[in-house]
Structure formats: C-alpha cells, structure tokens
Description:
The complex is a heterodimer of chains A (546) and B (474). Chain A has 546 residues and is α/β, with parallel strands linked by helices.
Amino acid sequence: MVNYSELKKHEDLLQICGKCGDCGTSGTQISTAKRHVSEPCPIKNVMGFEAYDARGRILIMKTLVDNNFKIDDSFLNWAYSCTQCGSCRETCLAIEGGIDTPLLIEALRQDLVDNEFKIEKHDRILESIRKNQNPYGEPKATRFKFLNGEAKRDEAEYVLYLGCTSSYRQQNIAISTIKLLDSLDVNYRILKDEPCCGSILKRYGYRDAFQHLAEENLKYLKEEKTKKIIFPCAGCYRTYKSDYEDFNTTDIEFLHLTEFLEDYFTTHPVGFKLKTHKKITYHDPCHLGRHSGVYEAPRVLLRNIENSTFIELDTLRNYSHCCGAGGGVKSSNSELAVQVASNRNMEALDKSIDILISACPFCERNLKDGIPENANGYQINDISEILCETYQKDLSSQVLDQSGSESKICQNYMEFLGQYPEIFSDLITGSDMDFAIYDSFEDFEDETPMDIFHVYRTDDGIQIHSGKADDADLELALSKEAVAKLIQMNSKNDYASLFGDFYNEPDIDEGWIDFLLHKRTKTLINMGYGKFAEAAGILEDEDEVA
Amino acid sequence: MTIVELNGKLGLELGKIVGEKNVSSERFVLISYSEDASPFEGNLPQIVVRPNNAHEVSRIMEFAYERDIPVIPVGGRSSINGSTIPRVSGIIMIDMTRMRDIIEINEDIMTVTVQSGITWSELIHRLKEKGYKLGFRGPYGGNAGTIGGSLSANSIGCGASSHGGACDNITGLEVVLSTGEIINTGSNWRIKTSKFEGSYARYCTFNDMSGIFLGDHGSLGIKTKATLKIFPLPKGEAYSDFGFSSIEQAVKAFHEIQSNHLVEEAVMLGDTNSIDLLASSYRSTFKNIECILAVIIEEPNEEIAQQKKEMCEKIVRKYGGKSIGMFLSKAHWLNMFNLVQSLFEEGFWYNTCHIRPISTLPQLIEGFHHLANKYELKKNGFNWIISALGVDHCFTSGWITIFMKDRSNKEITYEVWDELRELEMELDGVPYWTGKLWEPYALKRVNPSFYKTLKQLKKTLDPKNIINPLTFGL
C-alpha cells in the first residue's frame, strides 16, 4: 500500500476542482474576454488524452488518494510527463490564482520517491549533484574551464551565478552574459565553488535531498558575504528566490539578468542595434514568468533594440505556452519535450518571426532542439546573446526614461491622478491596475494602446508607474478623448461624474471607458474594486442621487 | 467473441482504425475519463479511442456492432448531469475532441458546418475573425464543451434568451448510426449533388430527422457534423443591470422583457444570498435590492440597441425596479464561459438546472428558502445561488445550485438535493437535459405511451442497444 502523505496534505485542492475542463480545453481562446489562453496544456496538446491535462491529473490523483491503485512503469512515465509549467493554474478560475497543479504533481512525485518508486536516471542525476555539484555527470573541477581562468573573483557588489546548464551545456549564454556585463562595467564576481541550485531535485520529488542542498547553498553564500546575485538562468533564479523561501534566513537579493539590466539602464546609458532589420519575439520562460512574475523587464529591454520589430506571440505572459523542457520532462522524456518545443516554434513561425528570444538556458536548448526542418533562417537566442550582440556604446547617450516615452496627454493624466490618491482609497494594499489609453476603439479591440501606465496601491497611498504591471488586477481602458476631458476636471466629484458617464454612456467620438478583468469578478469586488467603481461614478444608486 | 476475449486485441484493432497513438487502455487514462463535471460516479471505460473523422467513427461502430460491444461518445465532458459517464462495463469511449475542424462557413445560407468535437469557445473565435456570431453561444461550460455534446444534452446557456438552446440553432446533422452507416439530415437527405456542405434547412421534404438525434444524450447515433445558424456581428451593443426590491416585481419585468424579445440575454439573480455571493458590495451600494436582472442587447446598430435598452428601462420602472449601472451584465457577457468557475471555492456544486415558466419562479424560490431553513443550510456551511436565464420563446432555465463546503455534510446535501428536484418537478419544472441528474425524477413521471414510443425508437435505431446503454433507462 503506497502512502500518499504529501498528496493528502493538499486534499482540499484536489476536492475544489469543479472539473469544468478549462485547463485542457481545445478552444483557441478561452471565453470571450481577452484572456490569451489557447490550448493551455502543452503536454495534452501533444499526447491528446485527458489524463495529461490538469483536470485529468487531478482526478487521477484524487483516485490514488481514495483508492490507491497499482503503480507501474507506465504510470511513472505519466507522473513525470508534466512540465509543471503552471499554465493550467493561470487558466483555472476555481480559486484566485488557480488550483496549483504543479504543486500537486510535485507532492505526488515526493510520495513516489518516498515509497521507492524511482526512475533510475533520476537517481543518477541525484548522485551527480551530490558528487559533482551538477546534474550532468561532469567533473566539478571543469565547471568554469571554458572561461580559461579569467573568471572575476575579486570582491564585488554583485555575484554572477551562471548555473550548471550555462556552465556545462549552454556556454554561449554564460559567455554572452559575461561579455555584456563587462561592456557595461558592472562590478561583479563569479563564485569559485558555485553550487548546483538543485531545481531538478525539487521537480523530481527528492524533497529531503533538495532541502539539504538548499541549506548548504545558503550557508555557502552567507560565508561568501553575498549580498546581490544576478542569474542569467531563470531556473536557478526561481529556485533561489521562491523554492528556497522556506529555508532562507539571509537577506540576499536575487535578480534575474533582465531585472538587473532594466534597473541598470535607468541610470546608465543604453544602446542596442541589430545590423539588419529583424522581426523578434519573446518566449516567456515558465520559471521567470508564471513562477516568478517577471514579464515586463525582458520586454522593455527587447523593445529598445533598434532596427527590429518586436511582435508578441498569441500566447504570452502568464498564458504563454511552455517550451516543454521544464519539470524534468527534458531529462525524463526528451522526445515529448521536443514535440512541445516544435509546437511553440510553430507559433513563432506562423508570425514570420526571425528571432525567438528567451531568458532561460533550458528554453533555449529545447526550443533549438525543436526547430522544424523547414524553418530556414529562423533563430533562437537567449536574451543575453541578443543584447550582447547588439550592444553599441556609441548609441548609448540616454538612459531608459520610460516616463518620457508617454504622450503628453498620458503624462497629464498620470499627474492628474497623482493629485487625487483618494480615488483609490477603497482598494486594498497591493492592488495594481493598468490604465491603457487608446487612439481608437479599433485599437482597443486589437489590444494596441497608445500609452499604458499602472497605479499601485500602497499602505498609505498610490504609486504611478510607466508601463504595464507584471500582474495587473484589471485594465482600465480609456479613449484619448475621454482622458482629454477627464483631466480638465477640477474636483474628484466632477471627475467621478464624468468618468461614470463615459462608462455608462460610451460614445466612440466623445469618449468611452471600458474594463478588461484579469482577476475574477468576485475577487475584484473583495479587493475593493466595487467601492472603487462607486467612487469613480460607475455604480450609483439613482434613489440616492434623486 | 466475448469482451474478455477481446480485451487484448481491442486496442490493436481500434489502433488500426484511428492510429495506435489515439487508443489507450492505460488505467490512469481510463480514470481520467471516468467523470464529468457532476458529482456522479460510474464505470471506467474499457478503452478510450480518439477518431479524426466520420469515416473512422463509422469503422469503430461497424467493429463494435459486429461484436456487440457497447460504446459511449463524449465531447468536452463539462456536463453537469452525468450523461457522459459509462453506465455499463466494457464500454468503448469515443472521445470526439480530435474532430474539431470547421468544414464550411457559408455566407450565402448563413451557416457554419463543423465537426462535432469543436468547442464553443473555438468556434466563437473563428467566426468572430470572419465577422460572424452564433445565435446560441454555448453552455456556461463552453470552453471545454463541444457542439456535439451540447446537441446531445440539449444545452441551454449563452444567448438562449434570443435564440433558444443549442438544438434550436441547427439546420442539419451528420450522424453515424449503430451499424456504422452515415446519414445526413435536413436538406442534405439527398444523394450528394449539392454544392453546399451543410444542410440549409432543417424542416423539409420528410420528417424532422435531426430532431430524433437532438437531446438523445448520445444514445441513438453519433453526431459527427453539425450545421449551425450564424449571424453578422452586432454593431450596436447595450448593457443594463436592474435592481428590484421583490422577486414578484422582478419576475413581471423579466417576463415582459422576454415576451417582447428585446434582449440577447436576460439573466436574474434570484435572492439576496445570490447577490452577496457574486457581487458582495452591491447591496451596500444599492439600497433595498432583493434581486437583480441583467440584460445584454446586441443589434445591427447603436440606435436600435439604445432604443431597446430604453424600452427595458421603461418596463423595469413600470414594475418598481431601478437601474444599477451595467458592470454586472458586461462582466457576465465578457466572461461568458468563466462565470461559474469562481463559485467552485464555495464547495462542490450540486445543481438542479431545469426549465420552467417565468411566472413560477417566486413560488420555487419560496420553496427553496423553506428547504434552506429546514436543513439550516447556512448554519451547516452551505452556500447557494439562484439564477434564472430567459430562454426563447418565453420561459426560463432555473438554476438553483447548492455548494457543499464541508464534505462531512454529504448526507444533508443529498437529502436537500433530492427534495429540491422533487419540488422543482412538482412546481411545473421540466429538466432540459436528463442524465443521472434527472433521470429518476423524469422516469417516474413519464407517460407510458410516450416512453413506449421512445423505446421503439431506440430499438429501431440501435437494435443491439450498444450506444450509451441504460440512458433514459433503455
């Protein structure tokens, strides 16, 4: 009898699934709202059967807990066929944030390992990490051989943590990251005994081995007096930032390379230019996007590359399709991983993309493995490579000044809202809403705003930031005509009255306001958006007005 | 050959028809197909097969017919009535979701012909790209729900106030019979000579053959294609939410709006508990509201849409209601297939969806409140929602769902659930779909002559009773 003690800890999650099937839907887009969900489970998209999407997996796990059926090799292969990408979780509306199927799969794998149902290859990887500090069976001593003894070791503000994959397999990423940071005169060093982060152990279900490694790694970083770490690897970054959270008592700041660069270029001159014009796109790595909430930083950087056109894929940000490598699938079932990657590449090829850029060595490698045969000239790059290749010092006269990139009307609106923080006083701390200004209603339909900024509710007021929020509660869409009139108002009440009119009596020419909800209506109301709507003049009891 | 003897060979034989990758009898795969979105349980299928076209379905049926093997066709399995759960052992489950092509958008006869495994959400988006909409848009589970599934289960949902349910919106079908023969209904009854792929008229020449297979819960044949009506996308839209201080007022306004055919959708939240559940701040913002009616209007231009909105407002005021903005109706419409999911956290859902005359709603709601008091539902940690949707021509689909948060209360849940369904049938309600949800309640009330005719129909079309056996007790 197998003991599913880990899975049982999450029985509530298993029970809350209403079996609606959204997580495995074959639909092109879920619902009529503008959620860019499309066939959300990358594994079901290849395997076809219900068992491979979250609804099927949850039902199977529920049955396991209740009835404990026999485990065989075929079942083990199934258990390790989930990339834990989290796309199903984003799609799911049963609870805010969605049912965490990656967590459930991890619990199942822990139970399987605890009950000695193991895959031999996984054990070999565990041994390699213990012995060599990398999962690839490579000698520990050769980790930085490719740097020819030139790794910077002197005390520095930042540690550059290259990770096992960039050190042993995708060395192109390590080299371009180093070159880029050197070009920018960043004060960094590389740890002499950089350890494996252990991400793969956690995904395989080796809970105890992972925890032990995490504690050892944090101890080592503390001894090294590390304060800030830059990760070019999205996997290492997520592992340190999120998966170590339960054991981490340090105050080390973990930054993905893209986060570091976005911040760096707000105070240092920036300049990137491609030699010939290319259509580029960005593939959100699951480790960086869905699991860490970093969506905007890479996009801000890529949009700054001159001589390129940045095009979004149809599934993007939190609804982005996985490359297929995650959750140990690349090492457990490489053929499946490559088929998933091929599907993702087809999405880019359908848009005639020249270069698909990611920010994770696993994505880069697997997407390269999955390039379809007829994809002439199509290229996959890591973001460090494209930035390194296109960086031009002579173009670097200005820092990233996003506030300057907005239209005058947008700047005026941001300034106007700054004067009336009480408009947002009913929202709970942490609320974050995008304000998108549209040139026309057609642009709203096409989701191409002329300007976008977001208002973040703090404990004691609001912060207004340029650009889209990483995880906005909703988008407030306004026509430029509406904004032009709203900013003329001289009081909060006049503003609310006009705002309500634009929403309740929209007019294409005179002005209109609309909403795109990114969270569940019920959740938004609980966050105070109902009261916000009341204060903004959208909801008004006519009896009281009378 | 018996099923047991066939066990080893079944996968191989079916694999020859659909390709081995599209057949599975792995235990974990069978488990994943063993339930739908209802609380019901049933038998595991013996094998799951995923055909790609009507020809493959036909060959599967020939194979099953020759060997007396039962089959069950399923779509997205988002149904909440238990109709896609196998009632017998040894069944071949035919997962139709690989059959998802749009065969033809015919702008001449304004129809779309699709393979029956396409989901409502995909079809809506594909049509929108071409400037068209469907009439009935799908059940509330339309992200995963398929056209074929809805036509089998007679779904009612989005757009039903104006266009009726799923079955009201088709002009023809392609059906594979139990023997494997393929027939086309509607104007496609002829030997193929027409340039049109789909049927352009449902009622013509002979009896309405489509109707035999509509609402059959996948028990008389396997629908492989369907032709549905399409309409130009609206150029004028309007939304309105109305608050009422009593259910009686609301029902009068609801009836008048529905009988005048003014809206694409009219949906009502039937008590304060339902309002608090979906729109928690509303009762503090809007004083003295006991129920809410939300209407969505879609018209060829803005002027007509606004005129209809004004007509609705006038009707509402006549019955003492008031306008309370348009946030709910807009959110309802824009989140078309994502409405019920946010309620899952209240506990598993025990629904009682059925249809009834609009005028009977107050009596039903009163009856339910009596049950809620009797079983102390609130005290016992239950929640509920009472909703009613206008359905063309002039009735409503009543939606009372109980959410069981505490699983130790299963006994109470089943008692209330049972009493509620009995009450709904006694108060002039009729299930629009049946399945395990309603079958016992329907069968004990069915007219013997009606049932005898149904039995004869089943025997004629499925003489070996291999398609979804035991459905409707047959």
